[in-house]
Amino acid sequence: MSNVSLHNVRKVYENGRVAVASASFEIAAGELVVLVGPSGCGKSTLLRMIAGLESITAGDLAIAGTRVNDLAPRDRDIAMVFQNYALYPHMTVAENLAFGMKLRRTPRAEIDRRVGDAARMLGIEALLKLRPAELSGGQRQRVAVGRALVRQPKVFLLDEPLSNLDAKLRLAMRVEIARLHRTLGATMVYVTHDQVEAMTLGHRIVVMSDGHVQQIDTPMRIYEKP
Ligand code: ADP
Ligand code: ADP
Question: What pTM did the predictor assign?
Answer without folding.
Answer: 0.89
